[in-house]
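Course exercise 7: structure representation. Students receive a sequence record and must write out the corresponding structure in token form. The form below is the worked example handed out in class, using diphthine methyl ester synthase (317 residues). Read each field label carefully; the graders check that inputs and outputs are placed in the correct fields and that the protein name is recorded exactly as given.

STUDENT ID: A-19
EXERCISE PROTEIN: diphthine methyl ester synthase
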Amino acid sequence: MTMPSNQIAPLLNFEMLYLIGLGLGDAKDITVKGLEVVRRCSRVYLEAYTSVLTVGKEALEEFYGRKLILADREEVEQEADNILKDADISDVAFLVVGDPLGATTHSDLILRATKLGIPYRVIHNASIMNAVGCCGLQLVNCSIINQCFYFSQLYKFGETVSIVFWTDTWRPESFFDKVKKNRQSGLHTLCLLDIKIKEQSLENLIKGRKIYDPPRYMSVNQAAQQLLEVVQNQRIRGEDPAITEETLCVGLARVGAEDQKIAAGTLQQMCTVDLGGPLHSLIITGGSLHPLEIEMLNLFSIPENSSESQSVDGLRT
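STUDENT ANSWER:
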């Protein structure tokens, strides 16, 4: 029986492609196993377009003791063969902020490697998908009976959605259907906010000029403003929106970093909240909250003024 390449590799110690998660915080969030692999690989690539760490490339190089090769979207999606070159005769590492399989692009890299007969191994790490529990919203439903915890199979987070930067001619609202579906099921919605790194304007793209716009990262308040516009558009069309200005939301910034910030309040309040630099995420709560969730969110309620905070107990969910 022939074994898949990713199973043969650990047994025979073949040279291979490693996809290594870096976690969410800083250079030290890499796992011990991941760091050992990085230090022995012949080439180490740093994926630089689906997410960013709070520290720069230089800080990573200093801690890892290795030079890193930046891999942008064009390099990974159109010139992946450069990354995979000689990975069958020497170890090559591909570093990803968060978990390596958080983006479909990285699965494509695995498929390309497999077609070329190159073994691979994935070294996982924390990502926003599991670290989102830092705000106090439960990842699973739980109850306590006779001092024992019982976890049901109904996860409290529904399908994750992405909110992209709108343009003058492109203002997609299709993601809102998933928010509505989650809300109808009493599930929270994690919204991943847009990142624009090494993007070209339409004019530069048409003229073939290698000129790139400055990086842009969507903030919680920008996402909230777009969500409110979707709500207004649905009302104009005579539809009943899944959320309102008073829906309870949670803003997250730089999760996993030492300066992580969390804010809980209405969608309207999220339009003016300032959580600082990237990366940001937004949670739209769904249905009724567990008492522990309410108690935790009260720790992060948006201040009405400098001296007191508003309780989330009375907010609409």
